[in-house]
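Cont'd.
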Amino acid sequence: MKNTEVADDDDVTDDRAGAGSRIGPILRSRTALAVLFIALGFGLWLLAGAPEVPAKQLLSLTVWGVMLGGVLALGSIGLTLVYGVLQFPNFSHGALITLGAYIAYAVIGLLPPGSELGPFSFGWEFLLALFIAMPLVGVVALAVDRLIYRRLRNQRAGLVLFAMASLGMAFFLRSCVYMIWGPDFHFYYQGRSNPAMELPLGVRVQADQLFIVALAMALVVAVYLLLTKTRMGKAMRATADNPELAQVRGINTEHVIALTWILSGALAAAAGVMYGLTSQLRPEMGFWLLLPIFAGTIMGGIGNPFGALVGAMIIGIVTQVTAAFISPAYGPAVAFILMVVTLVIRPQGLFGGSA
Amino acid sequence: MALLEVDGVTSGYGDMEVLRNVSITVDDGEIVSIIGPNGAGKSTLMKAVFGLLHPWQGTITLAGTDISQYSPFQIVRERTCYVPQVSNVFTSMSVEDNLEIGAYTLEKSAIGDALERVYALFPVLKERRRQKAGTMSGGQRQMVAMGSALMLNPVLILLDEPSAGLSPKLVDTIFERIVTINETGVAVLMVEQNAQASLRMAHRGYVLASGENRVDGPAQSLLDDPEVGRLYLGG
């Protein structure tokens, strides 16, 4: 009898709450957030579509946005993987990006300068530098884990300690870059230009930018295949889902953690090397990329690699397109606003589980 | 020689002692049920056996090997599996991915056979193999969890409250499955709130209270013991 009464009471409460309780969840749904982003994006297009901004330029900006999104996605995917498996936000991720770019710069400096490959501004030594920087930064990330984070893990330290340790690591790694390469700007190649190509529909892009988009996409697909098709990838997803159960099922989670760091570091290095190609190398470059990367990660649902890709793409495109009518210096602010909007409407992100 | 021998184990979390000088044994092919009031340390004992906690004193041996200091992944290699009471499936992964993770230490070629064996035991899992485990009902989740543990064809399986949160009808189904699993030669060590029912299917039982051994013996004798009945079986 008592149970029935309780059930009746619940029904009454539901009715009283009425429309309010039904609209709330709808406003917080994934669709609502997606619709809002599309509306925002469309609004920006309209705003930007004022007479002084030709459609051609908007299209070019969008293509550049996809390129920036690809670079950010490599950073976001690494960040989200580490978060998933280790459950802390790695603030030193930006420093790994910087380190990747500078290692590539050092490798190019050591090699004899080759001629440009086809329409690109770089030669074969750049590709070699990329494939040296990726594993090297992966090893650095692993070494940091062994030195710092593993000790914290063994002491069962709290989230705040991990986050603070990673922030300290960010400053440490950046200082290393300052000490070795100095505070000045650097370019992979001094005085080489990469003129923009004219594509159909009046889109103007550099060959280098197309290379970045292609490589970023190739790496994203490789990560997707790794996570969904291979045993190690499944073990990584399992560890991110439930670390204790992963151990119980016979997974050596320390191995998984090591591989996650290597993968995350390698992707960060790729992002840094490519970002350095589109602008100059500065010791703070990774630090400034950290905000849009975090924004993309949170937007996609932290811990979800596919979400990180989509979130980073949105951030990249919106940041570039808004540059048509507000100063590009506000780029980080745009990323920040999108992050805050996500946190207010749907804190678990576009692809996060129901919180 | 017993398959599993827990000998005088004292353990706990941090500084808090939960188990005090606990000893139990499980022989090949046996169902052993551990009962006792809430907070008696039943789940802690399971965790200690499975290497999620290590004994402060005493030893745990499995088929003659001292596993006291093993990590869970090393214990899995000794063909012993554990089904935790809560969060015992990977909610974001499909049923089949869950089962494949259960076979993580198997050769790739052996996974197909293991899947067929588990699907034969739980046909509903085959129908729903693409479904995400997090979207399934409590009973089906329990089947996914038990199925994952059985992928390795273990010699011993530890079940922590397999009936928790299930409807009475599902409890019967799950208990029937446990008997079926046992009949294929797998030894079962289980912890249950549902003390009467679990003792009826068990060969032997232990009563644990305040982290210490109280009574043990053949399951039927525990069921017949008036004091055990009054104190621990709620009747």
